[in-house]
């Protein structure tokens, strides 16, 4: 079976790997380079916080389990996954963190309340505000170095025969005689089936096939799709887990570098006007970091980027054929770092064996195709959201 995968972010790399492992003849078409899209600018925290409805929560939990299963057999791949947990606390009196922890506990999601002393054992350089006496610790969460995850997935796809055409921009898809014709900016190709893994560019490509899957616009300043991420210089601080705190989220990025995020600052994120690494937003992020972790005084941001989320218009995952007779299969989702390995595997099973996955039943593209009435998604603005 000849299958084309369009896009080499986390989702495309994952689908290519699982398809190649299942024996398909895989060609990936990538317009720019691996990680050129959202996968290259992600907080990359594996979690299932605030995921509704229940089936979406379960999908994210299964995504975390799939990372753990992959990590059991890493081969020679560098470690992309730090399954070292997340610490979170609140400084307001709204009780929203307690409510969220109670909901997760009801769902049997691992979370413990720990003391400041225990938190400092886990993060020796942590500077906790004195009034914070309870910290939520999520031991099964983790963080990913996205480039290393894609290296693992795409490396194994290649070892099993997958080929890459890059730069290769797909401009249209049409189905005739049981085949999919792939129109490129400089030619054509043909496949028995196509996986669209083009992230925030999914709407345009599905429209060419006659089934437009609506996506939230990735370009609107201050909207749910845009977020600022600061990338620091290497720092002499001891942190090997995620912190999601009222003023700053932080994760290690390898080599002593950290990725920092202040969700309230995202109100100013504008892809058309990215902030400067020495500007006002960077100064805020640096001063919040120094408040939070000893050893980060004098930190610089090597870059500050405006991430653009890939979000199907209702905020949930899309995975499945465009219609009953179609051989075109889009996979698009937010939380694609958490979900990528799982979605690639489930999509490959459906494409190669024809067996439908119960886990994907609520996430078919048909629920969105043709819809124009969906409300604007609310931006993530507080700790624990993403
Ligand atoms: C600020 C921010 C924070 C985030 N935090 C988290 C988090 O903590 N945890 C989490 O799980 N997720 C998080 N995410 C989401 C996650 O990063 C994305 O869901 C994921 O990276 C999407 O991957 P993808 O492979 O679908 O898309 P992409 O990485 O965008 O890949 C799509 C690829 O397709 C290519 N392409 C597009 N159009 C064409 C075409 N016509 N022809 C050929 N190639 C094409 C692009 O060049 C690109 O390489 C975050 C995202 C942002 C922006």
Concise account of the structure shown:
By secondary structure, the protein is of the alpha+beta class. It has helices at 10-21, 54-71, 96-106, 116-122, 146-159, 202-208, 280-292, 336-353, and strands spanning 2-6, 25-29, 45-46, 81-82, 86-88, 112-114, 135-138, 142-144, 163-165, 170-176, 179-184, 187-191, 193-196, 226-232, 242-244, 249-252, 258-261, 301-308, 318-319, 328-332.
Features:
alpha+beta, FAD/NAD(P)-binding domain, eight-stranded mixed sheet, six-stranded mixed sheet, 26% helix, 22% strand, binds flavin-adenine dinucleotide
Task: Provide a descriptive summary of the structure in words.
The mean pLDDT is 97. The protein is globular, with a radius of gyration of 21 Å. 50% of the residues are buried. The protein has helices at 10-21, 54-71, 96-106, 116-122, 146-159, 202-208, 280-292, 336-353, and strands spanning 2-6, 25-29, 45-46, 81-82, 86-88, 112-114, 135-138, 142-144, 163-165, 170-176, 179-184, 187-191, 193-196, 226-232, 242-244, 249-252, 258-261, 301-308, 318-319, 328-332. Helix content is 26%, strand content 22%. The chain has two domains: 2-72 and 146-218 and 311-367, 3-Layer(bba) Sandwich (FAD/NAD(P)-binding domain), CATH 3.50.50; 86-139 and 226-308, D-Amino Acid Oxidase, Chain A, domain 2 (2-Layer Sandwich), CATH 3.30.9. Strands 6-7-5-15-16-17-14-18 form an eight-stranded mixed β-sheet. Strands 9-2-1-13-20-19 form a six-stranded mixed β-sheet, sandwiched between helices. Strands 3-8-4 form a three-stranded antiparallel β-sheet. By secondary structure, the chain is α+β, with helices and mostly antiparallel strands. A hairpin with a 2-residue loop joins β11 (179-184) and β12. The chain has eight helices and 20 strands. It binds flavin-adenine dinucleotide (FAD). Flavin-adenine dinucleotide is lined by residues 6-12, 29-32, 36-39, 41-45, 169-170, 197-201, 205, 227, 229, 307-310, 332-338, 386.
């Amino acid at each position: 079976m000849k299958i084309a995968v369009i896009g080499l972010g986390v989702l495309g790399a994952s689908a290519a790997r699982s398809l190649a492992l299942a024996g398909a003849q895989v060609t990936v078409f990538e317009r720019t380079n691996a990680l050129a899209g959202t996968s290259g600018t992600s907080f990359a925290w594996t979690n299932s916080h605030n995921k509704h409805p229940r089936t979406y929560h379960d999908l994210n939990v299964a995504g975390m389990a799939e990372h753990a299963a992959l990590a059991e057999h890493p081969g020679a791949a560098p470690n992309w996954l730090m399954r070292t947990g997340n610490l979170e606390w609140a400084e307001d009196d709204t009780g929203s963190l307690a409510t969220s922890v109670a909901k997760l506990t009801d769902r049997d999601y691992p979370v413990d309340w720990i003391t400041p002393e225990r938190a400092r054992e886990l993060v020796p350089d942590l500077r906790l505000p004195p009034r914070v006496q309870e910290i939520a610790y999520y031991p099964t969460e983790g963080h990913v170095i996205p480039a290393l995850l894609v290296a693992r997935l795409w490396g194994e796809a290649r070892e099993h025969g997958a080929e890459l055409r890059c730069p290769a921009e797909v401009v249209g898809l049409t189905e005739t005689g049981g085949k999919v014709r792939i129109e490129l900016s400089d030619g054509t190709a043909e496949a028995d089936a196509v996986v669209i893994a083009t992230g925030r560019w999914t709407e345009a490509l599905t429209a060419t096939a006659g089934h437009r899957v609506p996506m939230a616009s990735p370009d609107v300043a201050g909207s749910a799709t845009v977020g600022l991420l600061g990338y620091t210089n290497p720092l002499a601080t001891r942190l090997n887990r995620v912190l999601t705190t009222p003023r700053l989220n932080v994760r290690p990025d390898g080599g002593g570098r950290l990725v920092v995020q202040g969700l309230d600052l995202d109100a100013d994120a504008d892809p058309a006007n990215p902030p400067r690494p020495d500007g006002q937003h960077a100064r805020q992020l640096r001063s919040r970091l120094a408040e939070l972790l000893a050893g980060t005084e004098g930190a610089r941001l090597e870059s500050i980027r405006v991430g653009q989320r890939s979000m199907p218009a209702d905020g949930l995952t899309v995975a499945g054929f465009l219609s009953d007779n179609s051989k075109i299969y889009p996979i698009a989702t937010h939380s694609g770092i958490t979900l990528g390995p799982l979605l690639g595997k489930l999509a490959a099973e459906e494409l190669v064996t024809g067996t439908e996955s119960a886990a994907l039943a609520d996430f078919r593209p048909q629920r969105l195709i043709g819809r124009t009435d969906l409300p604007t998604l609310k931006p993530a603005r507080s700790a624990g959201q993403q």
